[in-house]
Amino acid sequence: MLAIKLWNYFKGYVIIRVEGLTLEKFINLAVNKDIYLWDIKRIEYTVLEGKVSIKGFKLLKEVVKRVGCRVYIIEKNGFPFLLEKLKKRKMFGFGFLLFVGLIIFLTSFIWNIEVVGNEKIVDEEITDFLEGIDVTTGKIKYSIDIDNVRNQILDNFNNISFVSMEIKGTKLFIEVKEQDLPPEEIDLKTPCNIVAKKKGIIEKIVAKNGKSVVTEGDIVEKGQLLITGVIKDEMFEKDMFLHADGEVFAITRYSHIIEEPIEKDVKEETGNVLKRREIKFGEKGIQFIEGNIPFKEYIIIDKTKSLLKILPIKIVTHEYREVELNKIKQNIDSLKIRTKVLAVEEINKILPENSKILSKDVKYSIEGNNLITVVVLEVYEDIGEKQIIYNEED
Questions:
Q1: Helices 54-67 and 23-32: crossing angle, nearest 10°?
Q2: pTM above 0.90, yes or no
Q3: Taking a C-beta distance cutoff of 8 angstroms, is the pair 114, 174 a contact?
Q4: Domain ranges of the chain
Q5: How far apart are CA 271 and CA 273, in angstroms?
Q6: Phi, psi torsion values for 345, nearest 5 degrees
Q7: What is the architecture of the domain spanning 112-178?
Q8: Helix, strand, or coil here: 288?
Q9: What is the pLDDT of residues 364-393, one digit of tens each?
Q10: In degrees rounded to 5, what are phi and psi of residue 8?
Q11: What is the CATH number assigned to the segment(s) 2-82?
């Protein structure tokens, strides 16, 4: 589609208006004579507008005579007509050519680097690394070896498993995928204890290796010793160090609090709209009109239109839509149900995979204009985790 538009632009075309009672016949005859018409729209019952090439417009004379319609040009577009204007205005033509040359020159540089897909690694770590290998904004994009840069990122960041790089216009787009590294397992020959990874009430202990130091019903804190790998024996002068193994099941608690206003402000549009246009080159922009926004409260909706996809030049229309703040009172019962569901969903995100929910307690309270929802879940889970024993001789 873009190629067709560019072809028509360089060949030149005109926008025509056709008036008459035989518009359908006009179109059919034009098609039969291989005259290409596009963007045809009916203005009135007896009026239509459309676009046709310069050559096609000349061929329409015979069609017009046969159908008795009136055809005239309302606009001329394309490179041939632009050249005619430039011949008459040499300074303008020189400026135009200079402008085009400047655009071509500037579009050969990287003006923005975007990194997506990273969660654990911050953008700055990757961009700082790229800067260290001379891949920065302002770099000529044709000088960047994509494969080499991708390999260097993979070699430098151990927790990145995949890198995709692409230059789109003047933007270097980098997509990464991080690998979920499982917790490093402790070798079975390495002495270790089992400690609590969170607070809980002990329900069951299965000590497969080592010795349990807690009993059912004990309340343990995070980091507290549960199964020891240090065995004391009177027959030996030194303590024995084992690789403790086992499971320690406990009742734990998870809670989440949600505050939601009972009466809240809702923005409703009044219908008043102020439009301002801005031309953007890359990330830089120039607004055509400046000044204060005449609305006290408003929302902004941006609409972007590219002049040509091959150039990083865009026209951005900023719509400032006036809104009124209206207060609405939410139904308390509906609000309670919604906040309870949201709180449970948040807790479920952090629950261990093999845990079991034993009970759920929900409490509501109202403080001022806010409904406060507190959800507490009692969960049955294995709270043990291994911890290497470092003795004084190590």
A1: 130
A2: no
A3: yes
A4: 2-82, 112-178, 192-249, 257-262+330-382, 266-326
A5: 6
A6: -60, -40
A7: Roll (3.10)
A8: coil
A9: 999 999 999 999 999 999 999 999 987 655
A10: -65, -35
A11: 3.30.70.260
